[in-house]
Amino acid sequence: MSNLDRRPAARELGGLEETSAGPVLDLLPGKEVQLGESTRVRRLLPTLGRRMVGAWAFVDHYGPDDIASSAGMQVAPHPHTGLQTVSWLLEGEVHHRDSVGSDVRFGPGQLALMTAGHGIAHSEQSPAVHPRCLHGAQLWVALPDAHREVAPAFEHHATLPGFASDGLTTTVLMGSLADTASPGTTYSPLVGADLKLSPGADVELPLEPDFEYAVLAAGGSATVEGAPVTHGSMLYLGTGRRTVRLHADEAATLLLLGGEPFEEQLVMWWNFIGRSGEEIAEYAELWNAEDERFGVVVGYDGDRLPAPSLPAIPLKARGRVR
């Protein structure tokens, strides 16, 4: 799942200005966004007041949606540059195809990690015969300058490491947490973890004080450091924390996202991340010209998505928050 907005706003990301120098509890408002004809999502990053958490630059949460009588997710081929997509399902199944030849179906608990680097194209669809419910998150990680031109690649990890204690079951998607490391390739210090809380769970989880963190309530509701986080909302925790306390009266699933504050300034527009407006304009022109930079998605039956018109105002890279 990607940004299908036909009038996307320019997002200026990165830099350490206004990064929290200590722990905070800021609830990030989500925005309802229509993707294609059949899927609505809650967009939590970038959002009013905050554009990144570590290298995490984009967070969409969707579902649970009953798609028994519909086609479900249908996202035509589109391009990416300068980022990784991290696809995480709680329910359902997605069929991923891309221009490096990947043709993979993945489901809950499996990591689908695509590194765009220099440039890639992909499509995402619910299979013709699919489970009744679709529920998950689509996340982007910005690549640092030293790696943003890396060759495109796709990884599918059907099993992931984790640990369990005191009513908490943790699966590490990206990076490492409590000495448990994901096999997913990373290019900057970060972490992504699925936290499943049993009813009545009250636990403390170790954190890195140099990281900034946010917690997304992907399923159910919980309290994080005493602050309520309801389904579909995300709480920004800032930096300087060595632990985080989690409590749930009911079964809940949280996504913990964190990383070292991203020092570089970026421009994110549509499905591209670059360092200047000129770069973004070039990416859009090359995609619309069907340049070989992005390759071809083989096996998709239908047209690809054209890049929308660039905004009238210049695209410039600035700081991390509005």
Automatic annotation (TrEMBL):
Residues of the Pirin N-terminal domain: 40-141
Protein name, entry field: Pirin family protein
Record InterPro entries: Pirin, Pirin_C_dom, Pirin_N_dom, RmlC-like_jellyroll, RmlC_Cupin_sf
Sequence ranges assigned to domain Pirin C-terminal in this UniProt record: 193-289
Top-rank lineage group of the source organism: Bacteria
UniProt organism field: Blastococcus deserti
Family, similarity comment: Belongs to the pirin family.
